């Protein structure tokens, strides 16, 4: 490890012992009391009080061990993915249901709780929409009492949606997201996670890092400038006094739109790569260059800048929707809460347009080659082949925290061509950001960090 990395707080981890479900049970038990669980005032009153406390550690070990074994199985050649709630059916109001609540579906006779039953149920318990209900019946042990239908709104924040659902009650909820990948949550709050044999108490959300907004800081300032110009024109032309936007709103809206773009590529299920380059390199990447050969280039013009245009229009519409005609009153300051709660039809239409652009980019990413965009979200082309003449990268750093201060060195030979190409590009182009989505849905952000290439696996 270089002296520079040590001075910046890097820690290289190698040869760590693998953790297993028993370790995860102890990890969660030690941290359970510190987690708050549900705290959203929109949640029903019955969900705000503690319900069905965490079972004793031997029971939790049994639950997690069974979930771990189920995660290694396949059902009709599909991975076994599911969510599981440890709580009695009485916890869930029978009148509840999506989009704001949970709809309990209780079996007349409880089912056996084992990995094979979880495998058989997995097609019926669509991961984003349903939850397996499990309770501990004393002498009878663990039993599957039924299902809970939640709907997918809980995923909105992760996928770039504006409106999210109220959190689950503060009981143990297990997420099985892939082979050997298990999360334990207290309601909606993550308490412990086991992935690749490593324990952690946080799901990696790169969008919450400090470096991600810094990468797009200049372009975000441009968005605010474009909005300010539109605001001034509206006042000069029509006398409209648009509301003032919270300076942080541009970052949060841009982040949601970026999430929407990434999650749409992810949901296509075919994988793909999207490369973001600095806007000052637009002309370079629009023609022949030493980095990426674009098979399909997009001509310059407004259509290829539509994604950014829509973000500005959302900001404009939100400010306009809260305008005031009373010159004696200062313009209202509008922030993230107003954006989440607005029912303005114009914003809904613009968000639908953003989703269509995200679908377009996702479709382009499924072709053979990378999509290339600027950090202004300008679409330069697709079918990009990263040059094989770029310097090879023998090892990369896997970030173990969202800022990349703690890393683990890995050889690049353990991944495929798509990832190795992104590593080469980011080594040669320090101001680029590559988003690599695998067919299994794993999202990896890659960039030059310190004196090497670092990647972040998005949780």
TrEMBL record:
InterPro entries: DACNV (IPR048551), DNA_integrity_DisA_N_sf (IPR036888), DNA_integrity_scan_DisA_N (IPR003390). It comes from the Bacteria. Pfam families: DACNV. Residues 287-458 form the DAC domain. SUPFAM superfamilies: YojJ-like (SSF143597). This is DAC domain-containing protein.
């Amino acid at each position: 490890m270089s002296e520079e990395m040590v001075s910046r707080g890097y820690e290289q981890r190698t040869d760590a012992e693998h953790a297993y479900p028993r370790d995860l049970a102890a990890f969660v038990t030690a941290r359970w009391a510190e987690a708050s669980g549900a705290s959203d005032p929109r949640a029903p009153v019955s969900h705000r009080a503690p319900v069905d406390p965490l079972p004793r550690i031997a029971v939790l070990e049994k639950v997690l061990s069974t979930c771990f074994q189920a995660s290694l199985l396949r059902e009709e050649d599909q991975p076994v993915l599911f969510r599981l709630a440890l709580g009695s059916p009485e916890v869930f109001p029978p009148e509840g249901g999506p989009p704001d609540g949970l709809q309990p579906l209780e079996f007349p006779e409880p089912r056996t709780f084992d990995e094979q039953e979880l495998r058989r149920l997995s097609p019926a318990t669509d991961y984003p929409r349903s939850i397996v209900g499990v309770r501990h019946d004393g002498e009878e042990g663990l039993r599957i009492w039924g299902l809970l239908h939640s709907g997918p709104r809980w995923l909105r924040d992760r996928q770039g949606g504006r409106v999210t659902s109220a959190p689950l009650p503060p009981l143990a909820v297990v997420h099985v997201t892939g082979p050997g990948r298990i999360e334990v949550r207290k309601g909606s709050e993550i308490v412990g996670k086991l992935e690749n044999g490593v324990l952690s108490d946080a799901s990696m959300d790169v969008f919450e890092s400090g470096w991600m907004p810094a990468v797009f800081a200049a372009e975000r300032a441009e968005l605010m400038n474009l909005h300010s110009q539109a605001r001034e024109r509206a006042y000069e032309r029509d006398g409209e006094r648009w509301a003032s936007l919270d300076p942080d709103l541009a970052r949060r809206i841009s982040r949601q739109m970026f999430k929407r773009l990434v999650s749409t590529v992810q949901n296509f299920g075919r994988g793909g790569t999207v490369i973001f380059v600095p806007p000052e390199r637009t002309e370079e990447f629009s023609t022949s260059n030493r980095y990426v050969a674009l098979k399909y280039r997009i001509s310059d013009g407004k259509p290829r800048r539509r994604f950014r245009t829509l973000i500005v229009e959302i900001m404009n519409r939100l400010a306009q929707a809260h305008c005031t005609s009373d010159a004696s009153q200062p313009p209202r300051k509008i922030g993230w809460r107003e954006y989440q709660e607005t029912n303005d039809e114009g914003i809904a239409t613009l968000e639908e347009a953003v989703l269509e652009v995200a679908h377009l980019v996702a479709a382009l990413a499924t072709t053979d080659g990378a999509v290339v965009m600027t950090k202004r979200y300008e679409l330069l082309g697709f079918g990009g082949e990263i040059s094989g003449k770029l310097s090879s990268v023998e090892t990369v750093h896997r970030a173990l925290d969202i800022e990349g201060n703690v890393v683990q060195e890995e050889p690049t030979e353990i991944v495929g061509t798509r990832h190795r190409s992104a590593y080469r590009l980011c080594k040669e182009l320090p101001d680029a950001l590559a988003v690599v989505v695998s067919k299994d849905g794993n999202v990896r952000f890659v960039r030059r960090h310190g004196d090497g290439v670092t990647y972040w696996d998005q949780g």
